[in-house]
């Protein structure tokens, strides 16, 4: 059985920009139409096609843009560039899944 490590970023529900994009996202999900490019980009997606609403409400951190692999003798993980984290993110979660 393998294990993988993941990173999630969260913007507080009180953030004004987040609220704007969340409303657009929910309206598009209910209408089953693609997201406007601006909203898709805000949530970190290259393409505006709809997917599960729960997935879209997370701010996606991209490897090579927001973080990179970290490797040293006998250790490995991720290194995050704080200056590149999307505006409004107040919490980052690292978790392992099996």
Plain-language structure description:
This protein is elongated. The chain has one domain (4-97). Helices cover 27% and strands 27% of the residues. It starts with a strand and ends with a strand. The protein is an alpha+beta fold. The protein contains three helices and four strands, in the order E-H-H-H-E-E-E. The strands form two sheets. A two-stranded antiparallel ribbon has the order 1-4. The mean pLDDT is 80. The relative contact order is 0.27.
Give the key terms.
alpha+beta, two-stranded antiparallel ribbon, about 25% helix, elongated, single chain, about 100 residues, 3 helices
Radius of gyration: 15 Å
Order of helices and strands: EHHHEEE
Mind summarizing the main beta sheet? Answer: 2 strands, antiparallel
Low-confidence stretches: none
Précis, in short:
The protein has 98 residues and is of the alpha+beta class. Helix content is 27%, strand content 27%. It has helices spanning 16-31, 37-42, 53-56, and strands spanning 4-10, 67-72, 75-80, 91-97.
Write the topology of this structure:
Blueprint: E1 4-10, H1 16-31, H2 37-42, H3 53-56, E2 67-72, E3 75-80, E4 91-97
Antiparallel strand pairs: 1-4, 2-3
